[in-house]
Amino acid sequence: xxxxxxxxxxxxxxxxxxxxxxxxxxxxxxxxxxxxxxxxxxxxxxxxxxxxxxxxxxxxxxxxxxxxxxxxxxxxxxxxxxxxxxxxxxxxxxxxxxxxxxxxxxxxxxxxxxxxxxxxxxxxxxxxxxxxxxxxxxxxxxxxxxxxxxxxxxxxxxxxxxxxxxxxxxxxxxxxxxxxxxxxxxxxxxxxxxxxxxxxxxxxxxxxxxxxxxxxxxxxxxxxxxxxxxxxxxxxxxxxxxxxxxxxxxxxxxxxxxxxxxx
Length: 263
What we know:
Elements: E1 18-22, E2 32-37, H1 47-55, E3 62-71, E4 87-96, E5 109-112, E6 115-127, E7 140-143, E8 146-147, E9 159-166, H2 177-185, E10 195-203, E11 209-217, E12 226-228, E13 230-232, E14 237-247
Antiparallel strand pairs: 1-6, 2-4, 3-4, 3-6, 5-6, 7-14, 8-12, 9-11, 10-11, 10-14, 13-14
């Protein structure tokens, strides 16, 4: 099960670190962290309770809360030999360790023998920013664009390397501690890493997840240089999602560089 979609605005005040996403259906997802049932007597969405579960799990970057028409007992076989059990409504809170959108909102329910499980009223929330790695300033949310750093006016190139963590290896796709770890170890004597941009890549043609991308730089860049909405990896074109920038505490100031393109 899972959640979805396009960012619509700021989070509710009771969920200060989350932003609402609209969900058409619950969905299957690669980075399921576990589901927790809210109290059965809670006949309304207790979003703050679900958000609290997400905030208490350092791997969680998204959650959704939904209603599920479920069976009160194990359903009978499809041959009609027994009556189907009465239905019950569950309120479910589901945690995820990756971004959510409408492309993977595909699970509207399923058959259990002859009983139709239905998922409805699903709404989800993506975290506004991941936890800050030790030794770094708080994240800058770049949305759906990645840094496209120009050459400094004095000819200095700040890009060090790009590291990709494939979604297929089972690792959390938005665990920025990986990026911090790479930045702390990937450097040269003349160009230590002081800044990284971590974002998620999803193929344009089929919506499949590539995984987390981390671009490492020797100097920090401001959000105005986040002008890259798409990129290529081994051929396919990918969209940038959930992009965050991190600067090492005490890092040198940004170099002088041409203004970013307005396109």
